[in-house]
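Much of our argument rests on the idea that a fold can be written as discrete symbols. The amino acid sequence and the backbone structure tokens for this protein are reproduced below:

___
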Amino acid sequence: MRTDEIIIRLFCIVDDRLGAVKKHPLANLHPSEVVTIGLLLALKGRRYRSFYRWLSANYRHLFPALPEQSRRYRVLVKAHGYTDLFLADPTILGIIDSFGIELVHPRREGRSAAPLGKKGISNHRWIVGIKLAWLINQRGEVVEWSWMPANVSDQEFRDVVAWQEGQTIALGDRGFRVRADEDDGVPIKICARGDWNCRFLIETTFSLLERVFQIKQLTHRTDRGIDLRLGFVAACFNCLLQLTHGKLSFLDFVI
């Protein structure tokens, strides 16, 4: 699929969702345009500067009021809150799991005075970075997400399910279990290896995060930058599922 068509289709979905949001009198871009650019940033999977050069050089005719680079980033940060509007509704059964994201090579650990990522284990290997937890519904859509440093246990992500206020029962692996005397009432069903194989759905979504959205390794150094990227990734994932009518096949949308 041509990139122009991808941009137009994403804009149509965004504009339908943000139709009631008014444009500020002094703003150059409508919020729908800003969010569409954020979705493209998530889908392109590059650093922000190279993404801006690519967008400005090839698709300025679709965004004629595109501001300069630093202003564009500040506008994206302000529009980050709109990504919550693209999160899906929970279903009776959901799936929760964590995904490791590397921020620096382990050999570079400790070189920063205020490191954002921490050293931890993800997928049976050491990384220095963060963990991203996704709660998805039975259709594979993202319902809720959160991130923490990689040195925390998956138990810390139990609040992701608790935020749904009993609307779903999440299937999780043994990393989310707690002792009986510490049970917090969060509806997470701990599944042993080989049980409830429908949980492999979230492994498919994580493989798309790595191959399509290219977030296995990120270069962000601030909380704001990570929140921005991961929020737009979750929103873009749900938009692509809508475009593919629920099929987890995004090959036509690689740009």
